[in-house]
Amino acid sequence: MGIGYNEGNHIPWRWLPVPVPADKYPLLLEETERLLKKLEEHDLPSLIHTQDVAKVTKEFIRFLRLPRETSMPIILAALLHDIGKLRVASGILQKPHGIDAIEQILIQVHSNHGASIIQEGGLFPPEVAEMVEQHHEHYDGSGYPGQLTGSSITRGAQIIGICDVFAMLREDRVTQKARTLAEAKEYLAKNKAWFAPDIYESFLQYVAENYG
Question: pTM, whole model, 2 decimals?
């Protein structure tokens, strides 16, 4: 169904040493599981995709050799990056044919919704909400919701962004069949202006080593 959706590949978020006070940690884990369960009930393909993105992000971060204190919030944000789709009608998310302009806007605001959901309980580190809100921003300013450019996009969001695109390309979706690896790489190359040059080049190296 996707890159990571099976019992053996679930991201072990219970093991994530996210930098929060010790008394809040169990509550953060409980809230993460609650949100993912709601997403599963609302739109299963979105849950499958978010697990795929978290898996690719975790592997890419390991390839980059980022320190754990940096990498763990990024992985958590990857796991929750589409949680804002809870506030998008499932009928729009599952629409088998092209969406109209209004529906496109309703889908795009999921980034804002996701940041709001994460901020509501006061449990998650602020950088998690920031990465969730920015994961569709593009390095060249063509993304959303803020049309941010370059270094104004957090590095974590840039990492999640390229992993999100790659996972999307490799999945069977309502509107498209999974792309081959060659097709996915071609798509990334065609749109490489979306990504910071160093992240793009590192991701290609990661793909070559892990996918052939």
Answer: 0.89
